[in-house]
Input
Amino acid sequence: MKDQRASRRFDCVVVGAGMVGAAAASLLARSGFSVAVIEQAEPAPFDATRPVGLRVSAFSPGSADILSEAGAWRQIERQRHSAYRRMRVEDRDEHAVLEFDAAEFGLEHLGTIVENDLVQWSLWQSLLAMGGVELFCPDEVLEISSDRNGRSLRMASGSTLECSLLVGADGINSEIRTMLGIDQDYWEYGQYGLVSVVESEAPNPGVAWQRFLEGGPLAFLPLDDGTSSIVWSLPEAEARRLAEIEEDSFLAELSDAVAGSEGHWPDRAVSCGPRAIFPLTMRLSKTYMARRSVLIGDAAHAVHPLAGQGVNLGLLDAAGLVEVLIGARQDGLDFTDDRVLEKYARWRRSEAEVMARGMHGIRGLFVPEELGPLRRLGMGLVAGSWTAKEAFIRRATGRNRNAPALARGSSLTDLLHPRTDTKKRVRNHT
Output
């Protein structure tokens, strides 16, 4: 039996095995890096016989491609998931409407709704099954120190891990970020997201539907059994009230909120599962890197769920980091050199800033009624412009021009063994 207190060395240590951290660890290991993963608790086995969980995510086609390269998407497809082909966004009085159909953009679908628990479990199974990865679970980092060769981590278990590169993927309240001394800009919205699973009179026809209401947006996301996962952004007091009232009263208020969409789903809500609320914030780390260290996912940024892009941004971080590290190694560079890590940090932070500040700005448009005309004008301009709609869809599907290569159809094999033209195209995005 190996001495757990002995010092162990790896190319990369990933702290946090949530969806983004586990995906990054898998991609790094599949790219030839030796990887250690530190996680406090192993995810529970996914049970498809249980009701749908409260926390789901809308994964873009680009994110699905990344999860496929990480060895998880095939497992996800064998379980519960729901692809949606249409999206409808309404202003509260329906004077402005945006509609998107996958077919008009030559796509099979616009996204796939999957339970977070299923994604995390599938990624964990991928890590367990592959070589090049060692899991330290349960365990946590107590202290980080530096030497000329990288980072040294003192663990709660008593062991010491050494690595060339430390990857902080430990969530919105990241201890790694704190230990590295990286500050954040953040905005508290004074709003909460209310989530539940809702059954309507008519099953969800596979449409992602969203309406701007006086207190915030209400979104219905299709599930594979015809029900919907809802996310309702509300002022804190209102969110708490709606989470605590009787089910019949909640369903009546929810039905009032969706009423009036003449000729369009959703119909009246007839039942719902448990309700929960969580605070809505926007956070953006001032930098994504420190010496021989980087941040990815919620450790680096957290955005309003208005666009449903939180986990997608994180998976793009993971793919972008791997792309930059592979490129550095192919160019004969030290993949932990500050110039290499700065390339990742500038690229991914600029993308997150566009999304975060965009959502922050849009969020400001749906609360004050006096800004309603401005919101409707913006929606009308997008609806009337094919170029604007296409740009919106490219970003929403994770396949805009500045996205990592893995989200735009390339494979790890393409990155590891690039043709000259492919290599040039990939580097242009970094």
Summary: The chain has two domains: 7-84+110-186+282-427, 190-280.
